[in-house]
Amino acid sequence: MNTFGGDWTKIKIEILVEYAKAYLTIMKDRKFFKLLYFDGFAGSGFIIKDKKIDVDVTVGAARRIVEISEPRSFDFYYFVEKDQENFNLLEKNTKQAFPKKDIFPVCDDCNKKIIDLGNYLRNPKNKNVRTLAYIDPCGMQVEWRSIESLRGLPIDMWILVPTGLGVNRLLKRNGQISDAWLEKLEVFLGLSREEIEKKFYKKKATLFEDITIVEKERDAIENSAKLYKSRLKEIFDFVSKPYELRNSSNAVMYHLFLTSNNKAAERIGNDIVNKYNK
Ligand SMILES: C[S@@+](CC[C@H](N)C(=O)[O-])C[C@H]1O[C@@H](n2cnc3c(N)ncnc32)[C@H](O)[C@@H]1O
Question: What contacts 100, CB < 8 A, 6 or more positions away?
């Protein structure tokens, strides 16, 4: 079983489910479209939070989406989960629990499957498929080249970006970032280390002409959210305002965005995000 998360775990699922219902309402009478739900980090079907005194069980996003039958269901569901134990539970909690629905769980890496999804949707045979995707990693697992592979496709995608918990943590204050961390940032943002350094660091002159100090710019979390949003806007026509997931000290850990090539999606996404950001 998955054991992670705080109240925002529930809120991000509510955001997704609210959007999915609005999406299915719009698609209800458009029978010529086949609707695919794709979840890249599907978990086990349930999220368990052990608060020592009591145990809090939340129905995970994958199962919540499968449970929807009104205004209509999705036509098929594709769930990716890399961890074998979670995958076994996921299969039991979705495919076996809902035998009448077309559910395809796979135990694999999300990046590989996002690229497969792009190829599938680009195939002219599948031109009537419309996709709602949910990309909910706990860390920096999503590679930029995977997101890039979705350019121009009929996908609405909620994507959780680890701005505070991921990017900001790797950006050391004095700029002395290890090669391994720089490589991680490069793969995640799809930018060169020179570009990353330029975005997040400034050089300060000292009394001595030949010595400059490298200093991290302020608001690195906010800047990384702006940067990731601008990267997403290179791939998708519309990107919603982000929902900010904060910890108990009010620090931002993640930003959740909706991307789409459809203006109406952005409007609906913004309405939902505004409601939950309050
Ligand atoms: C934040 S949890 C997902 C929770 C889920 N969305 C839910 O609502 O129940 C992230 C999940 O992604 C899985 N995971 C981690 N790296 C992965 C990868 N590269 N590809 C696919 N799944 C991965 C983890 O095992 C974990 O179950």
Answer: none
